[in-house]
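Project outcomes to date are best conveyed with an example. Our students and postdoctoral researchers have been running inverse folding experiments weekly, and each run begins with a structure described purely in tokens. The record below, which covers 141 residues, was selected by the lab manager from last quarter's runs and is presented without edits.
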């Protein structure tokens, strides 16, 4: 999926939702793409993820019957039970901005479908005026 097929009104709402829970770094929008891993690249993990994901699901009315946080996030602190979880439940699977976007658009978290989509790494914002938040900038391209 590439950025040309994105509904920026919905995407910008998702970006605002993330911002309410987690402050983006000053240069985050230089490279923010549908392929951005919100855990590893933005640093949203543990308690931040536990705050963000329920807010995201509620705000966008997403059916989460198929969502398992342990697939994407490692709990805060030491996880005593990680060795007992199957390998696909140890927080190793990337959760991307594109996955959040597609889930918000479809109103359902379909794990298999979302994890199999290839997202474009092309930056979503090409100039500062496109960024939906104040105080951030990108070098105009």
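After processing, the design step wrote out the following sequence:
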């Amino acid at each position: 999926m590439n950025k040309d097929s994105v509904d920026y009104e919905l995407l910008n709402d998702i970006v605002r939702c993330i911002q309410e829970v987690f402050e983006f770094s000053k240069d985050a929008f230089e490279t923010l793409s549908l392929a951005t891993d919100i855990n590893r690249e933005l640093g949203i993990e543990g308690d931040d993820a536990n705050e963000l994901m329920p807010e995201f699901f509620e705000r966008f009315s997403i059916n989460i019957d198929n969502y398992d946080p342990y697939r994407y996030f490692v709990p805060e602190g030491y996880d005593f039970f990680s060795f007992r979880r199957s390998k696909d439940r140890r927080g190793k699977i990337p959760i991307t901005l594109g996955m959040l976007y597609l889930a918000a658009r479809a109103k359902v978290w379909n794990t298999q479908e979302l994890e199999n989509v290839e997202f474009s790494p092309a930056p979503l914002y090409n100039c500062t005026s496109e960024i939906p938040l104040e105080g951030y900038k990108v070098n105009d391209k």
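DSSP finds five helices and no strands in the chain. The two ends are 22 Å apart (CA to CA). The training component of this project remains on track.
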